[in-house]
Each structure stands twice: as C-alpha cells, then as structure tokens.
Amino acid sequence: MNKYEGRLQAEAEARKDIAQRLHQGLIQSLATIAMRAGLSRKMAQKNPEKAIEEISSLENLARDATKEARYLLFVLDPALLESQGLLATIKEWLRQYQELFDIAVMFDNKLPPAVNISPPQSQLLFSILVQLLDHFAGNKNPGGIHLALGQDNPKEVHVTLTYTGRELTELVRNRVEAYTGRLESMPGPQGTRRLKIWLPLEFREN
Fold first, then answer.
1. pLDDT tens digits for 179-190?
2. For site-directed labelling of 11, which of 48, 52, 76, 150 has its Cα 20 to 30 A away?
C-alpha cells in the first residue's frame, strides 16, 4: 500500500468512527425524544401532571441533543480554522467539549509565535485531536486530561496528551503514519499515560 492509499484508508476509518458516534449518540437521542414525545401525548389525556414532568424532561434531552449536534457540526466542518486559525479553533472546540461532556481539559500552547502551520496540516492535527479526546466522551470519570502543542524542530510540530486510562496509540496510528508522522506512548506522572505525536509541517511521499 502506498502513502496515498494509506491516507485514504486512514481517513475512511476516521469517518467510520464519526458515523458510529452519530449512531450511538445523536441519532439515538433523537429517536428517544420522538418516542417519548408520543408517549407524553397519550399520557396527557390520563395524567396531565405526569405528562408535564415528562415534557420538561424531554426539553432537557432536546437541549443536550442540540448541543451535541452543534459540536458535531463544528468538528466535522471547523470553518474557524480558515478565519481564525488552529489555536482559536482548538480553544473553541475545547470549550464546547467541556460543556457537552463535563470533562475538564487543560491546554498548553507551547508553539513558537512564528510557526507556520498550513490549512491541510491544521485540519489533520485538529481532526486527530478530536479523535483522541472523543475516546473519553463516554467515560464519566476520565481523570485529568492535559493537552499540549509544541515544536522540537522547525520541520514538525508535536502534540502531547497526558491522561488516565487505556493505551490510545492504535486509535490514531494509521492516520499519523499515513502522513509520515510518528507517535510514542510512555508513562506519565503519577500513574498517568503520555502519548506524543509528531507531524511534519510538510507532507512528503516515501
């Protein structure tokens, strides 16, 4: 398999993850709202007070579904990348992520002010970050998550994710290596794990 084919396969796997997320989350929530709305209509004829309580619960569920829909639209088509750049996009994404999933994430930007990350690399980097942190979305007690961007040399940037939980290397290995990047997992402080990903600032063919 050449690099081009590898990238196509890696992106197909990422789209499959998104489709699974849609099915398990938002679509199921909408189906639940529709079903319970029908039951509430029938309930209103026999027990109006109970129906009002159910409708109130449905309103909360609909708000949560709306938040998730907005989040998914943002991560699937981050228009902010073009207008305000990578850092502004990451900060807005993390704001929505923490509001939606109630998971605290510390973010450190250690990139030099003069670093130039092109739109394709920004899109790839952002997509990989989303794929990594979405792993924690269903975990109600993920522990502390720390995300940092940095640069060791002028030809590449790196992402460091420090977290508690299972090994995540295989989750993004295909995408990282398809774009001639590299990754390494290592022990972090106080029993945490640390995943470091390096991505080149210029895509190249091997």
1. 889 999 999 988
2. 150
